[in-house]
Specification:
Layout lengths: L2 E6 L7 H15 L6 E8 L2 E7 L16 E7 L15 E4 L3 E10 L2 H6 L13 H10 L4 H10 L2 E9 L20 H9 L7 H10 L3 H8 L2 H15 L1 H7 L5
Antiparallel strand pairs: 1-4, 2-3, 2-4, 5-6, 6-7
Helix pairs in contact: 3-4, 5-6, 7-8, 8-9
Length: 251
């Protein structure tokens, strides 16, 4: 089975440093229920953002931006769908009358039947949990009625969590549907131009895989003391031998 975690600070009264530590602490504790992958979704300025990696939570640097009001998290023990394909991991992106993130703990056993009889279409996402997203999307809206329809249609054992946008932004959210792409467009650009600052792309890749955001890494590009500190921390987490053999960073 997997684990679900999260927090809500709708009044914005909890200090950012506390929430940042809380997110990581919850994710690490949830490893008890799954170490194949971990991910979070959060609301920021009315947008739903999803960050997930096919790694144990303690090897990922979870860092939602300051001002985040809610986080929904998941640690995965894979039962169906290759964990190395990041699109098979939770949370999943959903689109109806609003954008939402979706996560599931449990096992659903009628996903293939629902696709076979045409209730929901086939998809490249192999995880049984994803039928929950598709059933909500089929209703064209996210509300209690569509959640009821989804929960009454699936068969198995389950707990579902859903995180939705607080309000609509005039800018739409970006989601990566390309199954062959691991990094989003901002990350790809960062990997391309980091050499202009004398920083190896393998070091940037290491920080991205660990969970640092593009904004954080861009600050490190102009302050190599921050970069050295971050790489040393990641080096310590991954272990000296793994770091030296796989990345060989200059710092």
């Amino acid at each position: 089975m997997c684990a679900l975690f999260g927090w809500l600070d709708y009044k914005g009264i909890v200090p950012y440093r506390v929430l940042r530590k809380l997110t990581q602490a919850l994710a690490n504790a949830a490893e008890e229920r799954g170490t194949d992958a971990a991910g979070i979704s959060y609301i920021k300025d009315g947008k739903v953002t999803i960050f997930k990696r096919p790694k144990p939570a303690h090897k990922i640097h979870f860092n939602a931006p300051d001002g985040t009001k809610a986080i929904m998290g998941h640690t995965r023990l894979a039962t169906q769908g290759d964990k190395k394909q990041n699109y098979n991991n939770h949370p999943f992106a959903g689109h109806s009358d609003k954008e939402f993130a979706f996560a599931h703990n449990g096992v659903l056993w009628n996903d293939k039947e629902l696709r076979k009889d045409g209730t929901i279409p086939n998809t490249y996402i192999d995880t049984d949990s994803y039928i929950g997203v598709q059933l909500i999307e089929k209703q064209g809206k996210l509300d209690f009625d569509s959640l009821q329809y989804m929960a009454e249609t699936v068969e198995g054992n389950f707990t579902f969590t859903v995180l939705e946008r607080i309000y609509r932004s005039k800018y739409s959210s970006w989601f990566d549907y390309d199954a062959s792409t691991y990094y989003n467009i901002h990350e790809e650009i960062l990997l391309e131009y980091c050499g202009c600052y004398g920083v190896d792309s393998t070091d940037v890749e290491l920080l991205l895989n660990y969970g640092y955001t593009c904004d954080e890494i861009e600050e490190m590009l102009v302050d190599h003391s921050l970069l050295r500190e971050a790489l040393n921390d990641v080096k310590h987490m991954y272990g000296e031998d793994i770091y030296e053999s796989c990345y060989g960073g200059a710092f």
